[in-house]
Design goal:
Elements lengths: L4 H12 L11 H10 L3 E5 L11 E5 L3 H8 L6 E5 L2 H7 L5 E4 L3 H6 L5 E4 L12 H5 L2 E3 L6 H16 L2 H9 L21 E5 L3 H12 L3 E6 L11 E4 L3 H4 L5 E4 L13 H5 L6 E4 L8 H10 L4 E4 L19 E3 L10 H18 L2 E3 L9
Parallel strand pairs: 2-3, 2-4, 4-5, 5-6, 7-8, 7-10, 8-9, 10-11, 11-12, 12-13
Antiparallel strand pairs: 1-14
Helix pairs in contact: 7-9
Length: 373
């Protein structure tokens, strides 16, 4: 029996291509997320990675079967297992190929068959605390850029609160006082237009901070480790070794660097001494980027006007730590990434990267394990 041409083509196509039920298009939500936050895809397709293969079992940090069913839409034939805590993760991960959740080094070590880890955080320090991922050739993707909208608003809120002296007024309110006479008078509260913000770490989150500061009329300068490239709303982008040249220019300095050997203890006594005494320091990056004792002494000496800290070293900050009682310091409990939309963005990214991995496509937000971000 001879096949007609259309029938022959159908047979050939079935042999060459993945079955149609396993092909899933990018969702509208993923398209919008990628475009709005300029998420970057790897230049290498996941199918071309040395360890790539379609996973058999995936462990997901969730307690929701509905979430598992939703993710399973793009992973037909793959077992997705919900794990609500570290104990259940460790119990399930030994024979899994993929983990979708927040980094847990003990789980990474126990998951000897892992080929891909998707962390839902932007920072990857807990994933790269040792060389396990590198030694095993595990792909690591993170949530870089996802928290830019929320964190940039948090930074601006801290800056405005410090500059408008809300910290002092809230302390007055707690004592049922209204005292309009404050140290430095009106000169201590400057208007934002024309003032300079230095963003230390012009990545995805730093870019969102710069965008909002520029929209408020501020001149924005920045540093980044990789290149001098930057958006139009950043007047100057310096390399990391130019930091100390830029510090004296700034009225507000925002640290959003990832924690690497180069950024550990980056903001030390010399850094604070170089600041304008009227400038504010804000840290939403990592606590260990700051030498806390040096910051405390600089605040006492009046080398800067105040500090807004969403992260500290140590964290959590002990109840008897001096930072709690110093004037002109606002401390928030590592919540700058939180918002009503952050969780939704996170899961859209997870599902899109899962779709891409199953299809063998280039992955979003791939971490360079050598650089640590």
């Amino acid at each position: 029996m001879h096949l007609k041409l259309p029938g022959l083509l159908a047979v050939l196509l079935a042999m060459i291509f993945v079955p149609i039920e396993e092909v899933h298009a990018q969702s509208a939500e993923a398209v919008e997320l990628i475009a709005s936050l300029d998420l970057r895809a790897s230049e290498t397709a996941s199918r071309d990675l040395p360890n790539w293969r379609k996973p058999v079992k995936i462990v997901v940090l969730t307690d929701s079967q509905q979430r598992i069913d939703w993710l399973a839409e793009v992973a037909p034939g793959v077992e997705l297992v919900a794990a609500a805590n570290s104990e259940s993760i460790l119990r399930e991960i030994s024979d899994a190929q993929v983990f979708l959740g927040f980094c847990l080094l003990s789980a990474i070590k126990a998951g000897t068959g892992l080929i891909w880890v998707q962390t839902m955080s932007a920072g990857v320090g807990r994933c790269t605390a040792d060389n396990t991922l590198q030694e095993r050739g595990v792909l690591l993707t993170n949530a870089q850029r996802l928290y830019g909208p929320a964190m940039s608003e948090h930074v601006i809120a801290l800056l405005l609160a410090l500059n408008r002296r809300f910290d002092l007024f809230i302390r007055q309110q707690a004592k049922a006082r209204q005292d309009r006479v404050l140290e430095h008078g009106d000169a201590g509260t400057w208007e934002l237009p024309g003032r300079t913000m230095l963003v230390v770490g012009l990545g995805g989150i730093g870019t969102e901070i710069a965008r909002k500061a520029n929209a408020l009329g501020m001149r924005v300068i920045a540093t980044r480790n990789s290149s001098r490239a930057g958006p139009d709303f950043v007047e100057y982008v310096g390399l990391a070794d130019e930091l100390m040249e830029l510090v004296p220019q700034a009225d507000a300095i925002v640290n959003v660097t990832p924690l690497t050997p180069a950024t550990t203890a980056l903001c030390d006594a010399a850094f604070f001494k170089a600041m304008k005494p009227t400038a504010y320091f804000i840290n939403t990056g990592r606590g260990r980027s700051v030498v806390t004792d040096d910051l405390v002494e600089a605040l006492k000496r009046g080398e800067l006007a105040g500090a807004g800290l969403d992260v500290t070293d140590p964290e959590p900050l002990p109840a008897d730590h001096e930072l709690w009682t110093l004037p002109r310091v606002i401390i928030t409990p590592h919540v700058s990434a939180r918002s009503d939309k952050s969780g939704q963005r996170r899961w859209i990214l997870v599902k899109e990267n899962l779709r891409r991995y199953i299809a063998g496509e280039p992955m979003l937000s791939v971490v360079d394990l050598e650089r640590g971000y």
